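User: Run a structure prediction on this.
Assistant: Running it now.
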Amino acid sequence: MALSTSLRSNLIKPLTAVAASSSTHRLRRPFSSSSADDSTVLTIETSLPFIGHKCEPPSRNVETTPGELLGFFRDMALMRRMEIASDSLYKAKLIRGFCHLYDGQEAVAVGMEAAITRKDCIITAYRDHCIYLGRGGTLFECFSELMGRRTGCSKGKGGSMHFYKKENGFYGGHGIVGAQIPLGCGLAFAQKYSKDETVTFVMYGDGAANQGQLFEALNMAALWDLPAILVCENNHYGMGTAEWRAAKNPAYYKRGDYVPGLKVDGMDVLAVKQACRFAKEHALKNGPIILEMDTYRYHGHSMSDPGSTYRTRDEISGVRQERDPIERIRKLILSHELSTESELKSIEKELRGQVDDAIAKAKESPMPDPSELFTNVYVKGYGIEVGGADRKEVRGVLP
């Protein structure tokens, strides 16, 4: 991945503060304030322009508030700390099996949530911890699930790859590469059938972008004008394979051919927010659209991947210095005097305490009862009888 030193100057563009009330006094809000309390609107230009395919890109000027910026900082910093703690738990063998971390990609999860509601649906692959947290999940539920405890979001039976929160429109958490894409288009079909004016964000990585099922599902979504937004989180490596080695055309936002697409700086939370709002409006009126989020993961593909054999450490540190989503928001907050450096550091310290408390509580939670092996296999009330070899003797009934 080529890194340009010119990106540094693009991290912060000129900001315009527009007072929504008659006062021109710049508000200095405490970090805990919500955007609903703000009377100051900030207009910020995205770090990079959007690039459209068969559509006119949205404006680079994004409206936000002090409370929203501070909320972005808190949410992304919390996600980052959760993933770093998960790394330590995995190395301590308290998390077993597969574990895919999201640090570096937090702007996608947070910016997307800022543009939609909990009635909209999200479905993703196995890098799902932060998406779950953004959908309203708790740290305790996250760490409980990661450590296989009964109090986890999937009762300790899903682990890292299978987080769910159906009541908040989060449908997983899927371990088979690309398999969530047809399911997401099915959710969009149900939304259109119900006429409830909501959309589904179908998330996948660049490693899944060459899957045949993606194009089959996209074809049906386009035929039926389904409100499906396909989000390719392009972190530039499918496991250990660089995108240019796997895809003849790595411009994933164009890969829908007859379906419009938009390339987005996925390390800029405001750009993600603007793109997702634009995509939702488009999908409700015109059907599917593809968003390619240009992002980056700091960890390897999974915890079994050191992440440094197919890319250089200089590349990783270069992205951290030039494009880190949390540092971008930190600089915006400081440049607008919404908070001080010491206040932001104290918030990060508070978030570390929240993560540590959640881990301690999750460690005390019980493991699932062995009987849970036989639950959630069939739809409730539609169990199956288990008989002997001659089928004459019923040996048990699965719930």
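The longest strand covers residues 228-234.
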